[in-house]
Amino acid sequence: MGLLALGTPLAWEDAKQRADQVRKLGIQQLLEIWNAYRGNERDILLWGDEVEYLVIAFDEENKNACLSLRQAEILDALSVEEKVRRAGGGVPDLKDPAMVEEPLPTFHPEFGRFMLEATPGAPFSLAWKDLLSVEPNMKLRRTIAKKHMAPNETPVTLPAFPRLGTKGVFTNPYYPPTGPKSRSQFIPDECINPHIRFPTLAANIRSRRGSKVAINMPVFYDEKTPRPFNDPTIDYDRHLFPEDDDVRNGAAKEGHIYMDAMGFGMGCCCLQITFQAKNISEARTLYDQLCPLGPIMLALSANTPIFKGFLADVDVRWNVISGAVDDRTEEERGAKPLKNDRWKIPKSRYDSVSTYLSEDPRLRDEYNDLGLVIDEDIKKKLIANGMDERLSTHFAHLFIRDPIVIFQETLDEPPEGKSDHFENLQSTNWQHMRFKPPPPGGKIGWRVEFRSMEIQLTDFENAAFAIFTVLLTRVILSYDLNLYIPISKVDENMATAHRRNAVLGDKFWFRKNLFPPRPISNRGSPASTRSASPVPVEEEYALMTINEIMNGISGQFVGLIPLIESYLDTVNVDVVTRCELAGYLSLVSKRASGELQTGATWIREFVRSHPDYHKDSVVTERINYDLMKAVETLGCEGTLPNGLGEKLLGR
Q1: φ and ψ at residue 525, rounded to 5 degrees
Q2: How far apart are CA 511 and CA 509, in angstroms?
Q3: Are the beta carbons of 156 and 141 closer than 8 angstroms?
Q4: How does pLDDT run across 391-402, given as a tens digit for each residue?
Q5: Residues 642, 336: Cα–Cα separation, whole Å
Q6: Among 120, 92, 118, 91, which residue's Cα sits nearest to residue 104?
Q7: Is 535 exposed, middle or buried (0-12, 13-18, 19+ CB in 10 A)?
Q8: Which of 178, 250, 349, 584 shows the smallest number of beta carbons within 10 Å?
Q9: Inter-axis angle of helices 389-398 and 376-384, nearest 10
Q10: What is the rounded distance in angstroms from the CA atom of residue 633 to the CA atom of residue 618?
């Protein structure tokens, strides 16, 4: 969740005056990094995952499951645990390097006071032993986190807490839903991590936007859901803050679940994978080639069918987070003509990628087809200092945004040898791929972060999706795959991925031929070849089901999983390792085919089959309690009694 600097944060009216200064310093730092590291070479792939947890507190007497707001106490307990500290795990700022013996997991704070993030203590390599250690490492993280919680608390890997923002008690301890930072009707400010960066982020996004964020997710209409559905949790008569007028002015849509605070989005958990490439060129290739996979993996990992105590007619979290940090003004959103702002900006700062950036000759101009909004002055400066056109365009697009949180102290310090101003903007552009330059002064290389996937209920599932993604990067590089489709089609796929049961019920744009075209020999001149003439771009891709994309179409499309299996056939893998990898690939394959359910489908069926469910889309306290108990058991045991997890896991 970005850098946790300490200092004096500027309120938005003051920060707005210093935004250009931060942009200028950020570009200066980027160019220093570019000049120092663009020739950097790394020989092996390094990678790591980020797993985020919700901390649940059970009230056994009242049969209620709440969000525990004890993040700080849990992190404190982890930081002083001797064994974790000696092994290099715990909380980064409190580790003693002299005590490190072996890398154990590292725990980090997140936006929500009810969240934890855990990463492996050291990056994984591509060695088979490292791939097979992913699931045990994830299990270890869960075990260590649980050990440092209260007896009634548990960490769960679920994207969104089903009853966040409902009427009644959903946090432990309870706080009334109000506060000057978010000014939400539904979530108390006490849900926000108290580190000054986080409440300032929430307040400044609201202030810059000129209103509270407005998140509307379509409700799932069941047999007895009121028609039309008007969110019954909204208080139209509240007059605590000026922004309370938002709902009276139409912020809440009919037929939708309405949410009004950053916490609804940044209180979501996800599974992210970061890859270090051997050099900048390889990193740019991975960025581009993984980009079209983002929406596919979002739909395949779908695990979020409930918001604010209601079943939704979507299966994923992405648009909730996108809306939760959408700081665009009315002019930037196109609701008013441009007068005070520079650009109309089509997307939230949390959204899908808007441009490819590699120097691959296969990257046709037609693929970057969105009419990108960029800061031309920044692009000119980058090009004048030796950065190429495409990478300059990428960063000039990111830097159209304003820095949201500025610490006064950073403006008074020399910028050289640092990346804080650059990261201020880089880390608050939350796109589904992130291109990450090396931090200055270290030994870290050029990296790419794959950000779209939903966190899964079990460590087995999370490991399966992580391992699949890692192996796919090896296939992309080894076989020189070409997954390019127009960026506009990636956007369409992101919208499709939100639909209920999109993994089985919808089709996605995908490239028909993934292999580079073979040169055509000129007759009479065996040594001379010419490139195959490119076909029209619109003939390069077609609509496919996720099953077809993953498992292939006989005689027409090879499929990503068969490609991975083909790659494994060509490398030296022992039988035991191959069998274990096959188990992970099988989960992904069966999710794609429908033989196994997504988490979203499994949760939806759990709710709709619960004896307390009244077919009205409402997820009651008791339904949520039983669901959280099942999720806890799945996370800890990897299965459920009486075959309740069989549709999800096949066991």
Answers
A1: -140, 80
A2: 7
A3: no
A4: 999 999 999 999
A5: 57
A6: 120
A7: exposed
A8: 250
A9: 140
A10: 23
Burial group, residue 366, by CB count within 10 angstroms (0-12, 13-18, 19+) = middle
Q: What is the pLDDT of residue 45?
A: 82
Longest dimension (CA), the chain: 87
Helix (H, G, I), strand (E, B) or coil at 380: helix
Phi, psi of 431 (to 5 degrees): -90, 170
| Cβ(559)–Cβ(588) below 8 Å | no
Amino acid at 213: V
Q: Alpha carbon 135 to chain centroid distance?
A: 20
Residue type, position 467, single letter: I
Contact between 68 and 57 under an 8 Å Cβ cutoff? The reply is yes
First vs last Cα of the chain: how many Å apart? 35
Give dist(CA 583, CA 563) in Å, integer: 16
DSSP symbols for 547-611: HHHHH-BTTTB--HHHHHHHHHHHS---HHHHHHHHHHHHHHHHHHHTSS--HHHHHHHHHHTST
Report the relative pairing of strands 64-68 and 171-172 from DSSP bridges: parallel
Can you list the alpha helix ranges (DSSP code H) found in 278-368? Answer: 280-290, 293-300, 318-324, 330-333
Question: Could you tell me which of 455, 452, 468 has the C-alpha nearest to residue 142?
Answer: 455
Report the alpha-carbon distance of residue 581 to residue 583 in Å, rounded: 5
pTM for the complete prediction?
0.94
For residue 268 the two structure tokens come to 């979501």
Alpha-carbon gap, residue 518 to 533, rounded angstroms: 11
- Cα Rg of the chain (Å, integer): 24
For residue 10, the one-letter residue type is: L
Quick: pLDDT tens for 48-72.
999 999 999 999 999 999 999 999 9
Q: Residue 600 is which amino acid?
A: A
Q: Which residues contact 54 (CB under 8 A, 6 or more apart)?
A: 67, 112, 114, 115, 155, 156, 157, 158, 161, 269
User: 584 and 459 in contact (C-beta within 8 Å)?
Assistant: no
The per-residue pLDDT for range 444-502, each reduced to its tens digit, is 999 999 999 999 999 999 999 999 999 999 999 999 999 999 999 999 999 999 999 99
